[in-house]
Design a protein that fits this description.
Distance between the termini: 50 Å
Shape: elongated
Order of helices and strands: EEEEEEEEEEEEHEEEHHEEEHEEEEEEE
Largest sheet: 19 strands, antiparallel
Structural class: mainly beta
Number of strands: 25
Helix content: under 10%
Length: 470
């Protein structure tokens, strides 16, 4: 049977794609304007060819795929439609539209969803069985709502050269660039904090990738002031309470460790010394009133490379060295000392004030996800408490950030990988991070003028053909 579509109205026509009971996939059409084309039907196949329409109303979209789903909450439309459809053992679709309008569009992934009013230009949809791809030259989404562990609201997001590919093995979304003028963002980290330190089962056998290369800190400069309040259980005097007023000047990623020592309260400063011994910076325990620097009992050491040893002539150490500390095991006296143990009762960072700048550093050979990071100014203020074994206390840090840049490579968010070739952000303001003990629970902030270039997100093992290499 052959049927000329010219002059017909496709209202009520429903296109059902290869699916099962748990994965419905259908699109229902509404009114049409200036429809033309040819329909050919046999016992085993259905063929739509040379389809054109000035406008088509789309009244229903329900596409449930293995990795995500798409639903339309209100009538949408396609303008300048052309293409065709073939249905035999599987369904093949190849259509293009000059303009796509999709109000109340919702895309749901396993652990987050994105909603908004989407308008696309130069749109192409190709489906072959369980595989498919959607392309658009320009995409504008208004009233954007992002829901998940991270929630966000933005008035308008603009994307260029969008490509969404999916199949039995997963999906991948790519964009040449993504821009938004402003957004309000909230992060709920309560469950993540409770799971911290646990095994990330979602990554399967993937090799872990460091989030951050400590060498990035070589570009950090500025000032950090904080009063460190310490309450410790110690032998003889039972407890020791002290306030250590640290006033830290950071210069090109280095700090003066002798200034840190002098910032300790009188008793601790008389006992603890920094010294350079056997190619390492060593924190050692000495004897009060007796000069034992370099001959005290080593507690913690930091192995130094050649350039780090050169810095010790100025009593300076790179911040990037400090995370590579090694604890020195103490020799046992061979007898139980009863109540001679030392334990931390409480530690508080009070009245933190920081004003920092980060110059982008060349970190060749890095395997970290966050790369080429830099910012013109970061301001932080706040107080955080740590009380081991006691009822946790609330803390808060506020701040703002100006002129952030960087890139992201191989950052896994659940099962999906995020890559961003270049990220630029004019400002992050109204930052408010709430802590329970030292665990961040909620973080809120506002973004201004964010641009992402060469974006790729998804869980397809092999990126779809044509993905922009970031």
């Amino acid at each position: 049977m052959r049927l000329d579509l010219e002059g017909l109205d496709a209202q009520g026509v429903e296109l059902a794609f290869d699916a099962d009971a748990s994965h419905p996939r259908r699109i229902r059409l509404g009114r049409t304007q200036k429809l033309s084309g040819m329909l050919t039907k046999t016992a085993d196949s259905l063929l739509l060819t040379d389809v054109q329409a000035e406008a088509v109303v789309v009244s229903l979209v329900e596409l449930v795929l293995s990795s995500f789903s798409v639903q339309l909450g209100a009538e949408g439309s396609l303008r300048g439609l052309q293409g065709g459809l073939r249905r035999e053992e599987a369904t093949d679709v190849d259509v293009m539209a000059a303009v796509l309008d999709a109000p109340e569009l919702c895309v749901r992934f396993s652990n987050f969803s994105v909603k908004g009013h989407l308008r696309g230009e130069s749109v192409a949809l190709r489906i072959s069985g369980s595989e498919g791809q959607l392309e658009a030259g320009t995409v504008v989404v208004e009233g954007v709502e992002f829901e998940g562990d991270l929630s966000s609201r933005a008035e308008r997001v603009v994307g260029q050269d969008l490509r969404v590919a999916w199949g039995a093995d997963g999906y991948r979304v790519t964009l040449r660039c993504l821009e938004l003028d402003g957004a309000h963002v909230g992060l709920d980290l309560r469950e993540k904090s409770q799971e911290a330190g646990g095994e990330d089962k979602s990554r399967g056998s993937r090799s872990p990738v460091a989030l951050f290369d400590w060498r990035t800190l070589d570009g950090l400069s500025g000032a950090l002031d904080v009063d460190v309040h310490v309450n410790m259980k110690v032998p003889v005097i039972a407890s020791r309470r002290a306030k250590h007023p640290f006033r830290i000047q950071i210069r090109e990623g280095t700090v003066n460790y002798m200034d840190l020592e002098r910032s300790l309260s009188a008793l601790e400063e008389s006992i603890l010394d920094f010294a350079v011994r056997d190619g390492s910076l060593v924190l050692e325990r000495g004897i009060p009133l007796i000069p034992t620097r370099g001959r005290g009992t080593p507690l913690v050491l930091w192995p130094l490379e050649e350039r780090d040893l050169a810095l010790t002539s100025e009593d300076r150490v790179r911040l990037a060295v400090l995370p590579r500390y090694e604890r020195v095991e103490q020799e046992s006296g061979g007898e139980e000392q009863g109540d001679s143990s030392v334990s931390l009762e409480e530690l508080s960072l009070v009245d933190l004030q920081a004003l920092l700048r980060l110059e982008v550093q060349e970190t060749r050979g890095t395997a970290s996800s966050l790369r080429a990071l830099g910012f013109e100014e970061l301001q932080l203020q706040g107080t955080v408490h740590h009380s081991p074994g006691k009822e946790p206390r609330q803390g808060e840090v506020t701040g703002k950030l100006r002129a952030l840049c960087g890139s992201i490579s191989g950052l896994f968010l659940g099962e999906s990988q995020l890559d961003i070739g270049q990220l630029t952000l004019s400002a992050l303001t109204d930052l408010r991070a709430r802590f329970l003990d030292v665990r961040p629970e909620k973080v809120n902030f506002a973004l201004s003028d964010l641009r992402l270039d060469s974006v790729s997100f998804g869980n397809l093992v092999e990126p779809p053909e044509g993905v922009i290499d970031s």
